[in-house]
């Protein structure tokens, strides 16, 4: 007869090979399995709803994106993955002796502390469940002065952090698994992912889960869409989820009556977001300034990311200057013919003015930008400093808003929108720029607008140049001026 010890060893071994088995048997958490014969469509193809079990089994790429309804059970799957990684030290390589002592870290993060709490509470609930086989193998501990976490007997730890201030508090440790809860609420999602989270997994080969109920058509949608595009299949996996998957009819925890009551409550309070809350749909905000169709026309997937300057072509450069904490953004447009095409993009974060001077001069020289065809935002002392420094060679045009700042800015942005709608200008894909466009509102005091202003100024300068060329091309006849009387005829 097989002893209990041998049986538990077999169970534990199988749990490492099958995360769904691990959840069901070792944690006493049965993931729901999806809805038979129910599909959603992405990029012209149909995909089945495969529930929590599908997510646990297939989210094995470098970046995995889960866009679901509220009450789908996002916190549960994240808790399961953290416990699975920590208990087995998934991805770690070393000797059996080292397994018990070497450090190993996973991270759950969110834009605010409150958004990291659900996963923390779910892990606490699992640990306290008397049917959880591994409950005694990890403890709740204080990781540092500000955050609690969990530590396993094998010295693995689960950490919790916020991505506040562009995730500055996350730097330092290598992570084997990172879950980013409600990531669509992060204003700097692409920067946090590319500049903080991905570097934290380079040494470990760890994976990143981006998980959210969509907050609109924002940067998360760009990441989510990649999971359905062939060129990203090796690095991205994406899955959608609706609230009905968590129904008791399909192995979930909500009764059909509960789901219907949730639907009625949303319809009564804000009917516009029913699909967002119930289906995890990406829905454009009603106060959006740049609409999805406009943005889709503006970004051209076929356009190369950078093109060198060529003789015989005309170029215009627009720069939004970051003198203090803001980045400096620059664009160069080829305005030889319509549509005007973006041929250069510059993003300088937290650089000294001397570095920015040098870059503007390099761009000016490489593209042969004519004097006056570089435009900069000259508002404030910083702008005036740049005008003075560059006056001898670049000779930039200044764009100043004057006293009626709001009206002037509205006019600038409105003209830019009109140009996008008329497909008069195109840009290659820039995630930071796309997100800025989706998030922009007329009251933009607390919003990132660097890309919008740089491109809008470049387009405005182009239109001024075109108007000037048109006026110059019309022959001047002082006799034939409209409204002027003629004599002797």
Summarize the structure.
The chain is α/β, with parallel strands linked by helices. The chain has helices at 4-17, 19-26, 51-58, 74-88, 96-99, 117-128, 164-167, 189-201, 219-226, 256-269, 274-279, 292-298, 353-366, 380-390, 405-421, 431-439, 450-473, and strands spanning 39-42, 45-48, 63-68, 104-110, 138-142, 148-152, 156-162, 177-181, 207-212, 236-241, 315-320, 328-334, 340-348, 374-377, 397-399, 425-426.
Write the layout of secondary structure elements.
Blueprint: H1 4-17, H2 19-26, E1 39-42, E2 45-48, H3 51-58, E3 63-68, H4 74-88, H5 96-99, E4 104-110, H6 117-128, E5 138-142, E6 148-152, E7 156-162, H7 164-167, E8 177-181, H8 189-201, E9 207-212, H9 219-226, E10 236-241, H10 256-269, H11 274-279, H12 292-298, E11 315-320, E12 328-334, E13 340-348, H13 353-366, E14 374-377, H14 380-390, E15 397-399, H15 405-421, E16 425-426, H16 431-439, H17 450-473
Parallel strand pairs: 3-9, 3-10, 4-7, 4-8, 8-9, 11-14, 13-16, 14-15
Antiparallel strand pairs: 1-2, 5-6, 6-7, 11-12, 12-13
Supply database-style keywords.
489 residues, Rossmann fold, Nucleotidyltransferase, domain 5, 2 domains, six-stranded mixed β-sheet, elongated, disordered C terminus
Describe this protein's structure:
The chain is an alpha/beta fold. It folds into 2 domains: 4-279, P-loop containing nucleotide triphosphate hydrolases (Rossmann fold, 3-Layer(aba) Sandwich), CATH 3.40.50; 292-473, Nucleotidyltransferase, domain 5, CATH 3.30.420.240. It is built from 17 helices and 16 strands. It has helices spanning 4-17, 19-26, 51-58, 74-88, 96-99, 117-128, 164-167, 189-201, 219-226, 256-269, 274-279, 292-298, 353-366, 380-390, 405-421, 431-439, 450-473, and strands at residues 39-42, 45-48, 63-68, 104-110, 138-142, 148-152, 156-162, 177-181, 207-212, 236-241, 315-320, 328-334, 340-348, 374-377, 397-399, 425-426. Strands 5-6-7-4-8-9-3-10 form an 8-stranded mixed beta sheet, with helices on both faces. Strands 15-14-11-12-13-16 form a 6-stranded mixed beta sheet. It is elongated and about 90 Å long. The N and C termini lie far apart (122 Å). Residues 402-407 and 481-489 have low confidence and may be disordered.
